[in-house]
């Protein structure tokens, strides 16, 4: 992390100097972005927007304060990568339980009333991410994001005890969306507040008022299968209690065990059987004692003595999805500029078993946040915001299709070799499917289609390991100026900037020419995008990776653009140039053409937008032309 650019400042460098008038108390008459709901999607969006001090962002929440316990707990590898861009990964990894291996149990071959271990696999495939799959309570995840907002120049805090009851778009003035809010606290219950906004984002859950206001509906069906979930402190002789465990019993149902952070707490997902019209009301009333008793039966012959239950719930699996994530179409199908968006559970719901809900919701917020930032700062036209629904709705659809299949397998009874006609799932098949589905459960299956923000694969062979439309897969490098081993992708922060990673050609001549063109040419896309009097890396952040060992590179021979002068003092940024780390070899690991090199263009949300030759100046400009306003 770099700081002191504009002068020495004592104290915690993670806390930005407060903007004038921050924090702003009380709901103003007008805001740039109003976020409804402080769940994972809303807080990632607010945390991203908090990085833009000129954007007036407010977030309202009907609850009286932050979430304290329960709900989601799985944090996918991809989410940890995102959290690293917010400066949160170290804290998250220190506190979380790491899911290293998953074990599989089935009815014992000699005694089907008992269970025995049949398989043990690595939870996340080696090399999939530099970060692990971890478990931490959703409330803590949200605490981390709240801290990002509090440390920002705007000092953003949610406005609690406020719910949205009406959203109207009247197309008048700068703030065309009128939102009516209602107080939910006892002292002012029912009082109403009206605020106008340029944009509104509904992150208000499966019963979203914002979704209703834009005429969208969650479509889909329940799986008609109930599960009980509890976070418990228990004493047991089950040997895999500190491993993720998928357990199939012969007749008592199935059980998924997820160890929790702290070393003692464990989450149990307990199969409560089929839901019918006759038993649906009864299932909703199931007690925690019934959940415990069912878990005890499934674990036989092992004992389970539950000492304390921190939280429990009973739910019916369901996967539902809306047709659009914005209001870009009127009721009669006329296209218009989107002003109201929905994210997270407001537009897609999943089962809990695959750990997708919270993770996909946060990626919604990350996708939309930088786009709103670019439009509100005047860098991009409002048409950029159409790409949010166009990109995220198909991703949610694909994940829901996967979730249906995975949930069905988790709920199915094991096949009985003595009664094959009874059906069920072979435990070996369940284990094999788990391994195949690793990219989904790691959060790395997202692949954006070719479009405005995703280029054609014409030059993909130059960097085969950086697949266009997928997240930028980081790898170790060595920073030239201070010989520090670092991860290349970790140089990117959640600050709304695009990244240009220039992998040098063998002779370094194409890299030198690229830097000269970007720095001095009248046709340079870098110069045409960067606002006047702003640092040259304020919109496009160029980083270079050379092939030579770092001791063979002379700092004074680097192009000036890789040692840019920035800030009010014109200080030199020494963290733009890297060399190959011989121990891992990023050129080999990511299949980068050593002779020609490559330019990898990466979006602010860490997805690869394009791969180009180092001398493809016109193609680079043509790609950015529809995205940015050119000067």
Describe it.
The chain is α+β, with helices and mostly antiparallel strands. Helix content is 24%, strand content 25%. The protein contains 15 helices and 27 strands. The strands form 5 sheets. It has an 8-stranded mixed sheet, with helices on both faces. Strands 1, 2, 8, 9, 10, 11 and 17 form a 7-stranded mixed sheet that branches. Strand 5 and strand 6 form a beta hairpin. The longest helix has 26 residues, at 386-411.
Shape: globular
Q: What does the average pLDDT come to?
A: 93
What is the spatial order of strands in the main beta sheet? 6-5-13-14-15-12-16-18
Terminal Cα span: 30 Å
Weakly predicted, low-confidence segments: none
Sketch the major β-sheet: 8 strands, mixed
Radius of gyration, taken over Cα atoms and rounded to an integer in Å: 26 Å
Helix content: 10-25%
Strand element count: 27
Structural class assignment: alpha+beta
Beta-strand percent range? 25-35%
List keywords for this structure.
24% helix, 631 residues, alpha+beta, 7-stranded mixed β-sheet, 27 strands, 8-stranded mixed β-sheet
List the helices and strands and how they pair.
Layout: E1 30-36, H1 40-49, E2 57-61, E3 74-75, H2 77-85, H3 89-95, E4 97-98, E5 101-107, E6 115-122, E7 134-135, H4 138-151, E8 159-160, E9 162-169, E10 177-183, E11 192-202, H5 209-213, E12 219-236, E13 244-248, E14 254-259, E15 266-274, H6 280-284, H7 288-298, E16 304-321, E17 340-342, E18 348-349, H8 357-376, H9 386-411, H10 427-436, H11 438-441, E19 476-479, E20 485-487, E21 498-503, H12 509-520, H13 525-529, E22 540-546, E23 565-566, E24 571-572, E25 577-580, H14 586-589, E26 598-602, E27 608-612, H15 617-624
Helix pairs in contact: 1-4, 1-8, 2-3
């Amino acid at each position: 992390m770099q700081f002191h650019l504009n002068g020495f400042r004592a104290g915690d460098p993670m806390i930005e100097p407060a903007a004038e008038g921050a924090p702003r108390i009380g709901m103003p008459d007008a805001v740039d972005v109003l976020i409804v709901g402080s769940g994972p999607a809303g807080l990632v969006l607010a945390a991203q927007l908090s990085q833009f001090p000129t954007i007036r962002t407010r977030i309202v929440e009907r609850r009286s304060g932050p979430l304290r316990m329960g709900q989601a707990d799985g944090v996918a590898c991809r989410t940890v990568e995102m959290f690293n861009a917010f400066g949160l990964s170290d804290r998250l990894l220190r506190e979380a339980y790491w899911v290293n291996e998953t074990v599989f149990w089935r009815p014992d071959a000699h005694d089907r009333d008992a269970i025995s271990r049949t398989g043990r696999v690595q939870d996340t495939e080696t090399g999939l991410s530099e970060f692990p799959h971890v478990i931490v309570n959703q409330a803590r995840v949200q605490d981390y994001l709240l801290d990002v907002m509090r440390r920002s120049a705007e000092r953003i805090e949610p406005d609690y005890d406020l719910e949205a009851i009406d959203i109207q778009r009247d197309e008048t003035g700068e703030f065309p969306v009128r939102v009516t809010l209602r107080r939910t606290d006892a002292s002012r219950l029912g009082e109403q507040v009206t605020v106008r906004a340029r944009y509104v984002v509904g992150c208000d859950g499966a019963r979203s008022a914002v979704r209703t206001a834009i005429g969208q509906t969650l479509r889909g069906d329940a799986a008609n299968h109930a599960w009980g979930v509890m976070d418990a402190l228990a004493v047991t002789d089950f040997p895999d209690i500190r491993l993720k465990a998928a357990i199939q019993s012969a007749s008592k149902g199935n059980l998924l065990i997820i160890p929790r952070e702290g070393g003692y707490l464990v989450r149990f997902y307990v199969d409560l059987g089929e839901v019918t019209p006759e038993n649906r009301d009864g299932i909703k009333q199931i007690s925690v004692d019934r959940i415990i008793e069912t878990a005890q039966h499934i674990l036989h012959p092992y004992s389970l003595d539950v000492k304390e239950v921190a939280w429990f719930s009973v739910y019916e699996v369901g996967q539902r999805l809306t047709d659009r994530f914005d209001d870009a179409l009127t009721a009669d199908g006329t296209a218009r500029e989107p002003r109201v968006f929905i994210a997270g559970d407001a537009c897609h719901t999943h089962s809990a078993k695959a750990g997708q809900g919270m993770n996909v919701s946060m990626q919604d917020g990350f996708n939309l946040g930088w786009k709103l930032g670019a439009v509100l700062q005047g860098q991009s036209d409002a048409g950029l915001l159409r790409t949010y629904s166009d990109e995220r709705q198909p991703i949610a659809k694909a994940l829901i299709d996967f979730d249906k299949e995975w949930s069905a397998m988790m709920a199915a009874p094991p096949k009985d070799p003595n009664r094959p006609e009874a059906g069920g799932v072979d435990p070996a098949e369940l284990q094999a499917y788990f391994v195949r589905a690793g990219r989904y459960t790691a959060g790395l299956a997202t692949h954006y289609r070719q479009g405005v923000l995703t280029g054609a694969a014409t030059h993909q062979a130059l960097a085969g390991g950086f697949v266009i439309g997928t997240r930028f897969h980081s790898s170790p490098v060595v920073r030239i100026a201070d010989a520090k081993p670092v991860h290349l992708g970790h140089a990117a922060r959640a600050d709304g900037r695009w990244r240009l990673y220039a992998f040098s050609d063998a002779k370094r001549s194409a890299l030198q020419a690229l830097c000269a063109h970007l720095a001095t040419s009248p046709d340079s896309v870098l110069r045409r995008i960067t606002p006047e009097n702003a640092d040259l890396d304020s919109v496009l952040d160029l980083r270079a990776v050379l092939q030579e060992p770092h001791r063979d590179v002379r700092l004074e021979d680097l192009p000036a653009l890789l040692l840019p002068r920035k800030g009010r003092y014109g200080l030199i940024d020494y963290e733009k140039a890297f060399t190959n780390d011989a121990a891992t070899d990023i050129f080999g690991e990511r299949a980068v053409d050593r002779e020609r090199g490559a330019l990898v263009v990466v979006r602010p949300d860490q997805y690869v937008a394009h791969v180009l030759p180092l001398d493809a100046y016109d193609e680079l400009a043509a790609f950015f032309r529809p995205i940015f306003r050119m000067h």
